[in-house]
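Hey L., structure's done. Input below.
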Amino acid sequence: MLSTTLAPQPTQPVTTPAPADLPLRAVFEQLQRTRTEPAWLRAARRKALEHFEQTGYPTLRDEDWRFTSVAPVAALPFRPASTSFASQFSAAALARLPFHGLEGDRLVFVDGHFVPELSQIAHRTDGVVVTSLATALAHQPEDLEPHLVRHARADDNAFAALNQAFFTDGAFIRVPAGRVVAAPIRLVFLASGREPDVTICLRNLVLVEAGAQATVLEHSTSLDGATHVTNCVTELVTGDRAVVEHLKFQDDNARAFHVAGFHARIGRSVKLLAHSFALGARLARFHVRAGLHGEGAEAVLNGLYLANRERLADHHMIVDHARPQCASHEYYNGILSDRARGVFHGRILVQPGAQKTDAKQTNKNLLLSDEATVDTKPQLEIYADDVKCTHGATVGQLHPEQIFYLRARGIPEEMARQMLIHAFAGEIIDRVRCAPVREELDRLIWDRLEQQEHLGLGAHD
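Output:
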């Protein structure tokens, strides 16, 4: 068992950024010389790099990527962010970010490196562990070995392989059996923008044991308008009867690229509620993998993506029903304006023997301009005969009669449009169970609609 009295420590510094003109293998070897890690992790990193070298970045010829070109990412030099600017971010600036007023533990990472001075971790005697991944690896790596880089596999996609090979740090959370963590645990990932075209790789491991309860909030944002790539992977493992709410809020700048993975392995009678809110980035791609490996498990996957200009928001999901009597429900809404694009690829897989499965998949899209587009592909793959599975997708625009109804009651047209859009987003927001987080999200979405002219979506520049 990992001690709860460990003082959080920053990742071992990388004193100089990798030169942009070095090949990927040379960058990897340079970083490996600076790391002190267990042999099993070093081997896993090397295996992931070899996998990426064999496959390379995906192209439009790959079925899972045929609607999303990552050519702009592939064209950037692979330059891992250094620690040079991690300590220069002020607490006053942190206080201006969303969710800052929430109670509970907070881990802050700047350019992928843990900053203890900005973090807030309560002294605990209940066995709950909230610390940086580097700290946990430095003290008792054997506690992480059964789970770290085991569930988000390098062969899942090229970005998962890059993350496994190059992640610098992240969060490690463990909630012992029967414990309840009432306040949300916040993970704040900041891109400083002080170095051009850097890649930030983060890895999080969350273990919620039998009968335990926890809420985890990931918040990713940019501190200025510089181009950067954020590659963040979270692995969640639960014991039986655990209750977990996980929320990812992505609001990177309009020149950033954000690729994220959420891989959950949930046990018997577990209740998982996982949310994704994508408001930013030039290209945002989310991989969601939920494995229902215990009877009676229930997973609700809930997401909202807003995009304007020429931005792209992409969700690629697989829910694996591996045991009988499990339920999964997916609700994803997209709001797209200007020449923005949305992609939703949802796959429900029902394994042989997973009888009494109850699965539902819904994707709704609101197009606010004639140039906005969406590609939606809900999919069922069923190998059992006693199941109830449905899926559906809708694409539409604001109804003129609804706008007329509100205008007839004295509401200006622009306000009427905002109200209807907000109501569409509210379907997703209302499923957030943690009340303080839900209220903050509702305010953020409404403010975003008010601040922008006409349809007002997207992240800050």
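The two ends are 44 Å apart (CA to CA). Residues 154 and 161 are 4 Å apart (CA to CA).

-- N.
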